């Protein structure tokens, strides 16, 4: 009986401590070294256009709360060595979200798009 009570209390304690330590103190404009000091090494690093670097942090499967509660990973984006965005995403959406963040700095088109390439007609 004592073992069961001990196991249940250990599970509750690990779940509560993981949920309490989940909040990070990241601010926009922090350097990459400052962010890595808080969050640790990234699980995924992606280089994107416009000088955007994305660091992905996946929930670790060996931690019990991540197994019990399906949790999202974190995506931290840098541009020119500074933190520009931090969002929570599912691990399989890191590529898509990183590309969307980088598109904020895309150049506008030089002329309006008038051709839609309908009916296999060649556009000028």
Detailed description of the structure:
It is elongated, with a radius of gyration of 21 Å. The protein is an alpha+beta fold. The protein has a domain of 79 residues: Beta-lactamase Inhibitory Protein, Chain:B, domain 1 (2-Layer Sandwich). It has 4 helices and 4 strands. Helix content is 33%, strand content 21%. A 4-stranded antiparallel β-sheet has the order 1-2-3-4, with helices on one face.
Write the layout of secondary structure elements.
Elements: H1 2-20, H2 32-39, E1 44-48, E2 52-57, H3 64-68, E3 73-79, E4 82-89, H4 94-102
Antiparallel strand pairs: 1-2, 2-3, 3-4
Label this structure with key terms.
124 residues; alpha+beta; Beta-lactamase Inhibitory Protein, Chain:B, domain 1
Radius of gyration: 21 Å
Q: Indicate the CATH topology of the domain at 27-105.
A: Beta-lactamase Inhibitory Protein, Chain:B, domain 1
The share of residues in helices is: 25-40%
| CATH hierarchy class name of the domain at 27-105 | Alpha Beta
Instruction: Give the biggest beta sheet.
Output: 4 strands, antiparallel
Structural class: alpha+beta
Strand content: 15-25%
What's the overall average pLDDT, rounded?
78
Low-confidence stretches: none
Please write the string of helix (H) and strand (E) elements.
HHEEHEEH
Distance between the termini: 80 Å
Question: What's the overall geometry?
Answer: elongated
**Side-by-side strand order of the widest sheet:** 1-2-3-4
Number of helices: 4
């Amino acid at each position: 009986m004592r073992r069961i009570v001990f196991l249940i209390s250990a599970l509750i304690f690990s779940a509560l401590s993981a949920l309490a330590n989940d909040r990070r103190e990241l601010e926009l404009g922090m350097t990459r070294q400052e962010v890595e000091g808080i969050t640790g090494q990234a699980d995924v690093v992606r280089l994107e256009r416009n000088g955007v670097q994305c660091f992905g942090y996946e929930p670790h499967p060996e931690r019990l709360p991540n197994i019990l509660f399906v949790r999202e990973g974190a995506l931290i984006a840098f541009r020119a060595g500074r933190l520009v965005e931090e969002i929570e995403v599912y691990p399989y959406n890191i590529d898509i979200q990183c590309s969307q963040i980088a598109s904020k700095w895309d150049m506008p088109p030089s002329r309006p798009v008038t051709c839609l390439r309908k009916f296999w007609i060649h556009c000028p």
